[in-house]
Amino acid sequence: MSLFDVMKNAGMKIPATEAERDELVITEVSTGFWTYHLSRRRNILRGLCGAPTMPTALPLRAWGVPGDESLPKDKRPVYCQKCANIAWPEGQPDLSGMD
Ligand SMILES: [Zn+2]
């Protein structure tokens, strides 16, 4: 299966332009479901921090949203601070309008 097949199966659009290939997306580690990283769309199988990742269908605005308080601590999502620092060296922008 090609990378684009993986993306299609995950409901992701295939990048067509340079800007789209550079777009940030939320990815998750392949060894667990609850640690999220940031990747460029051109290389969604690698986080910005270098971790091997899998695509998710999460919109970028979901980044940093805390898990439900009722969930046990190890079931709440964790967001990779390294990726965030690389993606946004000036600090995380307002993502609420992004998808
Ligand atoms: Zn990371």
Ligand kinds? zinc ion
Oligomer: single chain
Give the number of DSSP strands.
Answer: 4
Task: Provide the residue-averaged pLDDT.
Answer: 86
Q: Using the alpha-carbon principal axes, give the shape.
A: globular
Sheet with the most strands, sense and barrel status: 4 strands, mixed
Q: Quickly give the structural class.
A: alpha+beta
Order of SSEs, N→C? HHEEEEH
User: Nearest-angstrom radius of gyration?
Assistant: 13 Å
The total number of structural domains is 1
Distance between the termini: 26 Å
Helix content: 10-25%
Number of helices: 3
Provide the β-strand percentage band: 15-25%
For the biggest β-sheet, the strand order reads 3-1-2-4
Uncertain runs are none
Task: Describe the protein.
- The protein starts with a helix and ends in a 12-residue tail after the last helix.
- The protein has a 4-stranded mixed β-sheet.
- The mean pLDDT is 86.
- It is globular.
- It contains 3 helices and 4 strands; from the N terminus they run H-H-E-E-E-E-H.
- It has 99 residues and is α+β, with helices and mostly antiparallel strands.
- A hairpin with a 5-residue loop joins strand 1 and strand 2.
- The protein has one domain.
